[in-house]
Amino acid sequence: MSETITLEVLRYHPETDSEPHFQRYTVPYKDEWVVLDALNHIKDNLDATLSYRWSCHMAVCGSCGMTINNEPKLSCHAFLRDYRGGVIRVEPLDHFPIERDLVIVMDSFIDKLSSVKPYLIPKQDKPLSAGEYLQTPGELEVFHQYTQCINCLLCYAACPQVGLNEDFVGPAAMALAHRYNLDSRDGGRQARAEVVASNEGIWECTFVGACSEVCPKCVDPAAAIQQTKISASVDWLKDLLTPGVHR
Amino acid sequence: MARSNKPMLWLPFAGGGLVAALLTPILILITGVLVPLGVLHLRYETIAAFAENPIGKVILFGAVALPAWHVAHRLRMTAHDLGLGGGIAIKAACYGTAGLLVLAAAGALIAI
Amino acid sequence: MSRRPYVRKVERSWWLQHPRYVAYMIRELTSLFVGLYCALLAVGLVRLSQGHAAWDGFVAAFSSPLGVAFQMACLVFAIYHSVTWFALTPKAMPLRMKGEPVPGIVIVGAHYVAWAVVSIVVLIGAGM
Lengths: 247, 112, 128
Hints:
Mean pLDDT of chain C: 96
Strand order of the largest sheet of chain C: 1-2
Shape of chain C: flat
Helix content of chain B: over 70%
Oligomer: heterotrimer
């Protein structure tokens, strides 16, 4: 009899359930397996009705975010060997409505992401004939870490302010805004400030820092937000002391 | 959504956090340990002279007002975290208390 | 197919559910002691403005066993504030020199140096 491990998985089928409940499955234990492998084993062999998102199985697509033993993690990034000897509780990411089983409704995040204008807004319009934008490796390094976000939503699940205020724009969206604000080719900081520097933007953040702790790509959204608080405050002071100057 | 005036609250919060971090511990060491032990003496003449000096006034005011504001803002945000709401009562309690300390310090320093 | 997304309520005890949030709440709530000490300083300034006798009374009060015990608590949590505040500075103010990022430990270290300098200056001033 080879070793096994037990998963306790949250189930919710809206057509039959009034509320979620947990269901236990016993799966083979393998040193090299991640929780995603265990879920795939359940779906392939034990219970085909289990629904969950996944794709790359290598922590680059951001699809398989879940709460595993009370911690937001990518299920492809959570090794069974770290939970050996215990029960693994698998739930959907916190702070999002549950669509079905481990699948959450992420529409609010998509709206928040688009609201920060996550695209280059050039300082000046240039005709194509002027050629491409030049950027040194040093200029790229300034914002490079903030380009690494895979939209996995672990930071939204970890952030208590996301839980307490559903209008809070949230870590990933503001880290992405920061990515563009720091880009030497960009001139859109003021345009983004309408959302980013609003009460639902950076000012909802109390620097808990959980977002950066759980981020699988080391984006450090907490740093992005604190830096934005400083730049937004400087902008606010400039507007106060020299009103009407177009920036 | 519009640009917020939160910087009005946040800038003194940030300044207060730095002042609290750099200055408050040594002040507590002096008043809480060194003076009670008799190692240091805060004589009225010396402190009053410092408080009569305009720069002394600014330093003393900053040492009280900025950390007080910092704590007020922080406790207001924490009250919200604890489910005590973001209403006018919490704001009045937090900023009002800090305001009283600021006014008391300012009043005293102006009088000296 | 009918959709009926299930919304989970955030409990008032959310911060007790994970050590990370407990630590955050401790960090925030203990800042109260910095504020309480500011109140002590404010009272001190008022007493100073009221003259020699009032000031001496203030010094006697904060030197009492109760005054010292209260200030011990304030000192512990003020130092805790300093340590946690300095630790976060590299995130809020990343520096670059000659195209390379300045290591976080240097930024934190510079704050500890400033802390030492300010403390020494104040001690010398108070000793006069």
